[in-house]
Specification:
It is globular and about 75 Å long. About 45% of the residues lie in helices and about 15% in strands. The chain folds into two domains: about 1-195, NAD(P)-binding Rossmann-like Domain (Rossmann fold, 3-Layer(aba) Sandwich); about 210-425, NAD(P)-binding Rossmann-like Domain (Rossmann fold, 3-Layer(aba) Sandwich). The protein contains 18 helices and 14 strands. By secondary structure, it is α/β, with parallel strands linked by helices.
């Protein structure tokens, strides 16, 4: 099929390259010419496992990028909208970029098209895009469907090619047939429902996963008080197939581009419907308190933050990505610096992005440079590189052999045998 993907951010780039790899002819569209030029050269602007190879393969065959929305829309049978829907001042999703794209599509539409809302959008967005295009496009025939993405950063290519399910929200049999044919090569469960339910599925899924994270973090805090081990507790819970092991890992809180934004948007959707979502508000509150608690733990170990030196390993919100959006690591580091601590930070992939948010932070070339003369080592992202460090050498470089492992990625007994004062979360 001929496909246009408007928006070459995280979702758009993964979606476009994967659809091209499935044999479709794909045009990626973005207004930023420098970004389009670099993509056409095969340069990937984000760190995502498998994406560079996919992009280069696609460019040799059936994938290209352009700034010309009009031409891309005219040539396409299916148009994916993958622009951002950032959080507004009140927590609601900002739909301005989506509306702009809908107007661009309306100006170029030249026959039947399926227009796909791929970005995470509030309930009612399918109708909104449909209304905008109808007002501007005259009598052209088209269908707008909701097809939410369920991509995890670090495994997005694999998630796209091997999805748990594909959700399509439409009341058009014609559009449902086209979307079914598009995704047929993936041989995955295809769930066709109404647009509002499809939109709600995405928000409900992310909110539930965020709830699991905050729940296990709250359990971890109780475990510390009663001398239980949260890793053992999560293991015992996870064997229950109704619960499962996913997202039962305690830590400094959840972050990234989806959970904080989508949870807050769902709270606002609920308010707009006259419902107070106390449970989800509690999830968000636990998440904020968890980051505050990590800062307090550092202060207790050091007898106060003022004048201390902290080595921070990890800036991305999770491993295998360079994404620092709403990263709990950056939140904790900000709090430490505000408390008077000097922080030296290292991350294998996320330092360039972190510099855009925290230019005043001291960044080091490697993990060992960060721990030189440090009073405490704070592990904030569980990269494999950190687990494989020579901790005997780490101890020699540090001023004081103290480790706060907020990701529980190290084995406490072996670390303590090297003379470290080690603390995890809920252990």
């Amino acid at each position: 099929m001929k496909i246009a993907v408007i928006g070459t951010g995280y979702v758009g780039l993964v979606t476009g390259t994967c659809l091209a790899d499935m044999g479709n002819t794909v045009t990626g569209v973005d207004k930023e010419k420098s970004k389009i030029d670099s993509l056409n050269r095969g340069e990937v602007p984000i760190y995502e496992v498998g994406l560079p190879e996919l992009l280069k393969r696609g460019l040799r065959r059936n994938l290209h990028f352009t700034t010309d929305t009009h031409e891309a829309v005219m040539e396409a049978e299916i148009i994916f909208i993958t622009v951002g829907t950032p959080m507004g001042e009140e927590g609601e999703a900002d739909m301005s970029y989506v509306i702009d794209v809908a107007e661009d599509i309306a100006a170029a539409i030249n026959g039947y098209k399926v227009i796909v809302n791929k970005s995470t959008m509030p309930v009612g967005s399918t109708r909104l895009v449909e209304r905008v295009i109808k007002e501007k496009a005259g009598g052209e025939e088209f269908d707008v469907v909701s097809n939410p993405e369920f991509l995890r950063e670090g495994t997005a290519v694999r998630d796209f090619m091997n999805p748990d399910r594909i959700v399509v929200g439409t009341e058009s049999q014609k559009a449902a047939g086209i979307m079914s044919e598009l995704y047929r090569p993936l041989n995955s469960p295809l769930f066709i429902t109404d647009p509002a339910s499809a939109e709600m599925i995405k928000y409900a899924s992310n909110a539930f996963l965020a709830t699991k994270v905050s729940f296990i973090n709250a359990i971890a805090n109780i475990c510390e008080e009663v001398d239980a081990d949260v890793k053992e507790v999560a293991l015992g819970m996870g064997y229950d197939h109704r619960i499962g092991f996913e997202f039962l890992r305690s830590g400094p809180g959840f972050g990234g581009s989806c959970f904080p934004k989508d949870c807050q948007a769902l709270i606002e959707i609920a308010k707009g419907s006259g419902y107070h979502f106390y449970l989800l508000e509690g999830v968000m509150q636990v998440n904020t308190e968890q980051m505050e608690l990590m800062t307090e733990k550092v202060g207790k170990h050091l007898g106060g933050l003022e004048g201390s030196t902290v080595a921070a390993w990890g800036l991305a919100f999770k491993p295998n990505t360079d994404d620092v959006r709403d990263s709990p690591a950056l939140d904790v580091i900000k709090r430490l610096m505000q408390g008077g601590a000097k922080v030296k930070a290292y991350d294998p992939q996320a330092m360039d992005n972190a510099r855009q948010v925290l230019p005043e932070l001291e960044y080091t070339e490697n993990a060992l440079e960060a721990v030189e003369d440090a009073d405490l080592l704070l592990i904030l992202t569980d990269w494999d590189e950190f687990k494989m460090q020579n901790f005997r050498r780490v101890g020699e470089l540090m001023k004081s052999k103290v480790i706060l492992d907020t990701r529980n990625c190290l084995e406490p007994l072996s670390i303590r045998r090297l003379g470290f004062n080690y603390e995890g979360v809920g252990r």
